[in-house]
Amino acid sequence: MSKPVILTGDRTTGPLHLGHYAGSLSTRLRLQDSHAQFLLLADMQALTDNAHDPAKVSRNVLEVALDYLAVGIDPARTTICLQSHLPALAELTMLYLNFVTVARLERNPTIKDEIEARGFGRNIPAGFLCYPAAQAADITAFRATVVPVGADQAPLIEQTNEIVRRINAAAGRAVLPEARAIIPKAGRLPGVDGKAKMSKSGGNAIRLSASPDEIRAAVRAMFTDPGHLRVEDPGRVDGNVVFTYLDAFDENAEGVAELKARYTRGGLGDGAIKRRLEDILQALIAPIREERARLAKDPGHVLGVIREGTERALTKTEATKREVFNALGLFRLDRRKPAGREEALTELARLGQEFDAT
Ligand code: ATP
Ligand code: MG
């Protein structure tokens, strides 16, 4: 039996951070043997809110690819590909936009949150509002059934499946599979500032390539419990970013539970929990940073990985697009190859009649 297909990706808006690791990368690493995995460098989606700065989007293609390779994504098992070089994704997006309403797009909770966070007001780029349809195109073009993502993405997978059901209904058969999100326990890592989500655009991230000093500074400045002034005071664990990170990255869950109890009772200082977290993050990030520095010396190799992956993805996505267009009964010019102009015109007329008759 063939392996189930995974599709995920990241917008090429900046180097990846701990939120990506907790939300999605760790699952991708775990599943790269048991699944046929595709990772999309989503430069087109990055443009939906960065159209004023295409150079940034372009520059970060290699950065994100370097992060993939540095954390252990293996191009022999996982296909890394570039969104803007896969025209079928754009073509399917155009098609899918007819299967979703503006009202539904506006109701999508993720889109609502992101519009608010970006302060768009009424000036929402149309591409941004419509990116859930583009994401549906990405997922379905690869025939993915498994999508490892952070918790913020759950409503987008739901919307993808709605589009899939409508396409299948219009085609009269299940031409596309539905997909399921895999969301880990720590599905939404907050920013170091305590804001709901660590994000590249939020300026509240610890990069997977952060230096030891950057990690130290970020942990020192981390939001804890503003009411916890003296060591002996009882402290709050809820909403305390240091504990949220310990939950996500400290493998010793029992140890963390004990610390939480001590902190809540009083008698445990912020300094102590921050030191523990810093040690864990330094140990997690150091090998990634070193591998990344090694790989960055050979950008030609990284480029080769993306080129090869994109070629493989091109074949796959073109095939799906054809199948969907055919299943919907769109007009086909490719059934016969006419020899000259006269034959071509006759053929066109014949195809037209045939189409009318169906
Ligand atoms: P941007 O700010 O440009 O939107 P981002 O940091 O939100 O960037 P994306 O490229 O939008 O990153 O997200 C890629 C993937 O990483 C998605 O699956 C998303 O759910 C996951 N992810 C991003 N940030 C977090 C986070 N803080 N916690 C958990 N998962 C996250
Ligand atoms: Mg995002």
TrEMBL record:
<keyword id="KW-0067">ATP-binding</keyword>
<dbReference type="GO" id="GO:0005829">
    <property type="term" value="C:cytosol"/>
</dbReference>
<dbReference type="Pfam" id="PF00579">
    <property type="entry name" value="tRNA-synt_1b"/>
</dbReference>
<dbReference type="GO" id="GO:0005524">
    <property type="term" value="F:ATP binding"/>
</dbReference>
<dbReference type="InterPro" id="IPR002305">
    <property type="entry name" value="aa-tRNA-synth_Ic"/>
</dbReference>
<dbReference type="InterPro" id="IPR050203">
    <property type="entry name" value="Trp-tRNA_synthetase"/>
</dbReference>
<dbReference type="GO" id="GO:0004830">
    <property type="term" value="F:tryptophan-tRNA ligase activity"/>
</dbReference>
<protein>
    <recommendedName>
        <fullName>Tryptophan--tRNA ligase</fullName>
        <ecNumber>6.1.1.2</ecNumber>
    </recommendedName>
</protein>
<keyword id="KW-0547">Nucleotide-binding</keyword>
<dbReference type="GO" id="GO:0006436">
    <property type="term" value="P:tryptophanyl-tRNA aminoacylation"/>
</dbReference>
<keyword id="KW-0648">Protein biosynthesis</keyword>
<dbReference type="InterPro" id="IPR002306">
    <property type="entry name" value="Trp-tRNA-ligase"/>
</dbReference>
<dbReference type="InterPro" id="IPR014729">
    <property type="entry name" value="Rossmann-like_a/b/a_fold"/>
</dbReference>
<comment type="similarity">
    <text>Belongs to the class-I aminoacyl-tRNA synthetase family.</text>
</comment>
<keyword id="KW-0436">Ligase</keyword>
<keyword id="KW-0030">Aminoacyl-tRNA synthetase</keyword>
